[in-house]
Design a protein that fits this description.
DNA topoisomerase type II (double strand cut, ATP-hydrolyzing) activity, six-stranded mixed beta sheet, 15 helices, Arc Repressor Mutant, subunit A, 2 domains, topoisomerase, Spo11/TopoVI_A_sf, metal ion binding, 382 residues, Dna Topoisomerase Vi A Subunit, Chain: A, domain 2, DNA topoisomerase (ATP-hydrolyzing), alpha/beta
């Protein structure tokens, strides 16, 4: 069984297995990761012994030609994808080569000692070498893709930016009990989703909320208990990996509908597509990040006409919006969702967009007391 398959099996079954069994399986995975890193280092040593400049080959995570679409998974990286090379003897890439080797060394020590570090920790380990946090973030994902292992199995964690609330209780990996059921409680999404266990919820659905401001408004209006028990989660815009992992965890565990509430603009649609189909840069890990059952609850372009949202609440599409919309229409997954396609084409024809907050132009409480209850009661999603 491949290591990525072992990791998925572990994440799904860990709450049912004995502690001893989990320990043995984790040791096995750690051993495989160490072997893969050692093989990379062996290749470098071999090149040096031949008086050749070492070269690292990284899968190209920015090339659409390297991905394919599967409706049950989303965007996934193809086997034998094209690569980009990082040479140790090239002035343009020697710094990146050194950065990669340093992070390999850190990861090896973390896995070997069964300890963890955040990407922020790694950056501050040598700020002069890395130059920026973004360089560390990209390289950690490159290494994950190169070794064909989930990023979290490298023992590198990322600080979560997402928030979650609603009818949900669970246990963190360190034994901390998280209770999100109070209408005033907002919990940060865990940095170790795989370690979450003992999930308890009576929620009827999960609602992904694009923006933190809308999330807070719904929280203030006690939305999670007014209509029916539910769970709300926001990645505060483009979601981080932990927010996506959490949505997937809830879907796998609770088997309830997942809805998305995003702005009626190309940016909001793309964010929703990341949750549903995945992203180009993380397509190598699509099997554990995507939730193909995500449904578009709102705000729909057709809602703007149907509800007669005042014109002064609508915003003209910019050139950048139009380019993003064309890109979305051409994505490999768009054809699989004809209703989504119609909504995007409607936006393209109308040349306007709207934020969720535009519904307040109809009535201050329209979103919480009328729009969402009717949508959920009468099936107004696509």
């Amino acid at each position: 069984m491949a290591i990525e398959e072992k990791w998925m099996h572990f994440c799904q079954e860990s709450q049912y297995e004995s502690l001893e069994g989990r320990t043995v399986e984790l040791k096995s995975m750690r051993g495989e990761i160490l072997n893969r890193i050692e093989n990379v280092i062996l290749g470098i040593v071999t090149s040096l012994s031949r008086d050749e400049a070492p070269i690292l080959a990284l899968p190209d995570r920015s090339n659409w030609d390297n991905t394919s679409f599967d409706s049950s998974i989303g965007l996934q990286m193809n086997l034998g994808s094209s690569v980009t090379t990082v040479r140790s003897d090239c002035p343009m890439s020697v710094d990146k080569f050194a950065q990669i080797m340093r992070i390999f060394m850190v990861i090896y020590k973390l896995v070997q000692s069964n300890s963890y570090a955040t990407k922020r920790d790694i950056y501050y380990n040598d700020t002069q070498l890395f130059g920026s946090q973004r360089n560390v973030d990209i390289i950690v994902d490159d290494i994950s893709c190169m070794l064909k292992v989930p990023r979290r199995s490298l023992h590198v964690l990322a600080t979560s930016k997402g928030l979650i609330s609603g009818d949900l209780c669970y246990m963190e990996a360190d034994g901390t009990r998280i209770d999100c059921r109070s209408s005033t409680v907002v919990s940060a999404v865990s940095s170790n989703i795989a370690g979450i266990r003992n999930i308890v919820s009576s929620a009827k659905f999960v609602m992904i909320v694009e923006k933190d401001a809308t999330f807070q408004r719904l929280l203030d209006d006690n939305f999670c208990t007014k209509l029916s028990p539910c769970i709300m989660i926001t990645g505060k815009g483009v979601p981080d990996v932990n927010s996506r992992l959490m949505v997937r965890k809830l879907w796998d565990t609770l088997h309830i509908p997942i809805f998305a509430l995003v702005d009626a603009d190309p940016h909001g649609i793309e964010i929703m597509c990341i949750y549903k189909y995945g992203s180009l840069s993380m397509s190598f890990e699509a099997h554990s990040l995507t939730v193909p059952s995500v449904m578009w609850l709102g705000l729909l372009p057709s809602d703007l006409q149907r509800l007669r949202v005042p014109e002064d609440a609508l915003i003209p599409l910019t050139k950048r919006d139009e380019s993003k919309l064309i890109s979305l229409l051409q994505r490999p997954y768009s054809a699989s969702q004809p209703d989504w396609l119609k909504e995007m084409e409607m936006m393209q024809r109308s040349k306007v967009k709207a934020e969720i907050q535009s519904l307040a132009a109809i009535a201050p409480d329209f979103l919480t007391n009328i729009y969402l209850p009717n949508k959920l009661r009468y099936g107004g999603w696509v």
